Amino acid sequence: MSQAVSTTAYIGIGANLGDAQANVQDAIARLRRLSGCTVGAVSSLYRTAPIDSSGDDYINAVACLETTLGAEALLQALHGIEQAHGRERPYRNAPRTLDLDLLLYGQEEINSPTLQVPHPRMCERAFVIVPLLEIAPGATIPGRIPASCYASAVADQAITRL
């Protein structure tokens, strides 16, 4: 019997509607219960102002998973967690009860109609780069450069560790 291959994935977690901090913490708990996934490191929680959006400040974090799920299956599982929190998508970058983004999936580069990995805007967002570097200071962005090289590019974005 062969053993399923495990892949390291990084998940961006954010919320700015309702009790955003509780929603992020519940999402982490739900990630821990996902079949085929083991949560490793989880960053601190961070408060950030909305970017290209409106509404209250966001609470953000990044979690590292070891998963035997394929990238598309993992994305569907993340959407299920969002739906459990009443996530609606009325327009691009709308305020949200919960947002789970598949940031990195091993060293794969994926460009399908439903999924882009690495996440296309992750290197432009302090709310991704700062918590990612907290838990994975040596992370590299497939097809790009070490994640640490993007820290200076997002240094002007306000971010506060909670």
Give a description of the structure.
This protein has helices at residues 20-32, 71-84, 126-135; strands at residues 7-15, 37-42, 46-48, 58-67, 99-105, 110-111, 116-117, 159-161. Helices cover 23% and strands 26% of the residues. It has one domain (7-161): Alpha-Beta Plaits. It is globular.
Count of DSSP H/I helices:
3
Q: Can you tell me the CATH architecture?
A: 2-Layer Sandwich
Oligomeric state of shown chains: single chain
Return the string of H and E elements.
Answer: EHEEEHEEEHE
> Per CATH, what is the topology?
Alpha-Beta Plaits
Radius of gyration: 15 Å
Distance, first to last CA: 45 Å
**Into how many domains do the coordinates divide?**
1
CATH class type? Alpha Beta
Q: CATH-wise, what's the superfamily? A: 7,8-Dihydro-6-hydroxymethylpterin-pyrophosphokinase HPPK
Tell me the strand percentage band: 25-35%
Structure summary, number of beta strands: 8
Coarse structural class = alpha+beta
Name the helicity range.
10-25%
Name the poorly predicted regions. Answer: none
Global morphology: globular
Largest sheet: 6 strands, antiparallel
Rounded mean pLDDT is: 92
Descriptors for this entry?
globular, 23% helix, six-stranded antiparallel sheet, two-stranded antiparallel ribbon, alpha+beta
Concise account of the structure shown:
Helix content is 23%, strand content 26%.
Topology, please?
Blueprint: E1 7-15, H1 20-32, E2 37-42, E3 46-48, E4 58-67, H2 71-84, E5 99-105, E6 110-111, E7 116-117, H3 126-135, E8 159-161
Antiparallel strand pairs: 1-4, 1-5, 2-4, 3-4, 3-8, 6-7
